[in-house]
Amino acid sequence: MSEIAKVWLDGLWCDSHSSQTFTAINPSTGVPIGDQYPVSNWVDCERALAAADAVAQVLPDVPRDRIADFLERYATAIELDAEALANLAHEETGLPVTPRLKDVELPRTVNQLRQAATACREGSWSLPTIDSKAGIRSVHAAIGPVLVIGPNNFPFAFNGICGGDFAAAIAAGNPVIAKGHPSHPGTTVRLARLAATALAESGLPSALVQLIYRMPGEEGLKMMRDPRLASVGFTGSKSAGLKIKQACDEHGKPAYLEMSSINPVLILPAVLQQRGADLAQEFSGSCLMGAGQFCTNPGLIILVGQANASEFVAAVQAKFAAAPAGTLLSRQVLDSALSGIAKVHGAGAQLLTGGKAVTDNGRLALENTLLHVTGQKFLENPDAFQTEMFGPVSLIVTASDLEQARAILHRLEGNLTGCIYSSNDGADDAGYARLAPVLRQRVGRLLNDKMPTGVAVSAAMNHGGPFPATGHPGFTAVGIPASLRRFSALHCYDNVRAERLPTILQDANPSQAWRLVDGQWTK
Length: 523
Hints:
single chain; alpha/beta; Aldehyde Dehydrogenase, Chain A, domain 1; Aldehyde Dehydrogenase, Chain A, domain 2; 2 domains; 7-stranded mixed β-sheet; 5-stranded mixed β-sheet; 15 helices; 21 strands; about 20% strand
């Protein structure tokens, strides 16, 4: 019988106070693997909150260099353990070791940690502002303990124990309570052990980072309502995200949520006529990559005008039917995708190909699925046709003309991304000018002539968007330094004596951070 893994609380690897457990499932075989992991009860949650609260009281006195040193040591440790981490994550998620896990996602994760360390050490992210005449100074500073909840589809880059939200919260000076995802608990605990070593080597409080694998929903919401918890970072389903948002809103604390997005892609008439075959290939590759398990997967394609639409649809249908079905992350992903397909099909969309689970020696998989609906039909029931079908699934909408396409855009919910393909000869420019302003208001990131699947770790990136793609349209989950400011509070000092000010607000500015002094940016 497998052992029961320990939780990491208050600097110690200890037994959970709960007797309830779960086991990871290998999605390629459907067979349970690894240890049993505890489903923490309130005793574990209370201990984590108390320890995080105690650490939050002393962190303002910890030099930023030591926090940055931890992030850099942790990044190096992950880099050195890349082979074992990638193999373990592959077993738990079915995602390929190469190039996905070892060559793409792990380097991205390490890069995020190092970028966060640089921002932490330098300090300009905190927007220090000085009005010398009024004697008022302000700066973004740590908000307090942060609960970070990672998703199933990125075992490294968005993991609660090492991903983007984790890196941002730590770099901003906050203790983190990480909640692992049940799809990859073994990967998460291995990362946590690397973090524990890096913490010890950096001389930071051992409870700066803590780990709980899973908890009942009511206990998680109770944590979010607790005054000791300052903020939540979450990536996951819309249903869970809305419950988190309500709990946090009721108690006036920020929750940064990445939830549902179908990422509309508009293809204008001239570009469809000029290179429809290439676009069919580009779209199919984007939608089916990683079995469609990306938050930026193109789940809605809008073809503007009837010319060449049938050829494009037929080409995509053939590519979807011919491509092998990818392995899904979990039974829950499969069931949710089938439910979404049934809802969209039931609302009147035509099922062109796929739509069923794949029976393959226990492997969790879904046939590549393509649906179609007319623009008029979409407008009759836009809520149903915007159901997220997370997986290798997309809905094609054929709009009769620009005005119908514009009406469709007006009915869209908020999304992470939106894209418009247009010709290079100017033939689509008038259509672009008509549609882009509407789409711009409904997406966080507007793309031209490229599929939305990739998310670069860039200071200019916005991986966010209007509700319900996220809980707040003014912030990004990817992109440093902006992502750090989510987990901060604006601290203002009025007529406070110079020696009592935070170092970054003192006249000498020893950190050489960029500061806004009397209306001028200066070091």
